[in-house]
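so my prof wants the structure for this chain in the tokens format not the other one, which i didnt know existed until like an hour ago. anyway here's the sequence
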Amino acid sequence: MKNKIIFFVVLFFFTNFSIVKGDTMIMKLKDGEVVIELFSEIAPNHVKRFKKLAEEKKYDGVVFHRVIPGFMAQTGDVKFGNSNLDSFNLKRAGTGGSEYSDLKAEFSDIPHERGTLSMARSNDPDSANSQFFICFQSAPHLDRNYTVFGKVVKGMEFIDLITKGDGPNGEVSNPDKMISLSIKNDQSAY
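here's what i got, hopefully its the right format
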């Protein structure tokens, strides 16, 4: 009986390790590092795109162009929002995406709560591409209407420090940016 228990404990550990491996990201901001857990079983295509763009360094230097206090911080426009590129245009940030085709919606029952990462899109549910937002607090009106693909598990205090925008649309005139976004290689506890 003891051997069976040990077997199942070891099996559980290795099974969970393989699920988590590669699904933790590190976002470096001016004030500190943010650890993000991705939901590859819930939104596999969105997670795959997010990781692909991060591996290609497309998110490095991208600004938080739309930040609404008490709601969310939006970023991810790799075409017009990347401050490291010649194509950077703050007035157009929020209108671009990657060279890859748009993604089909992967809506779920995971709620939009503090720290949730969700893909931004137009009125078309199947128009998500590279832009995403992080919720400052619960936003139940977004539930089952936007694809949740991850959650901040450490460093939310640094998300809270992102420069806020003005007006109802949250346009930011002097935005903060993602210094880098990368896959966490070491799967030790965060």
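also thought this was worth mentioning. The radius of gyration is 17 Å.
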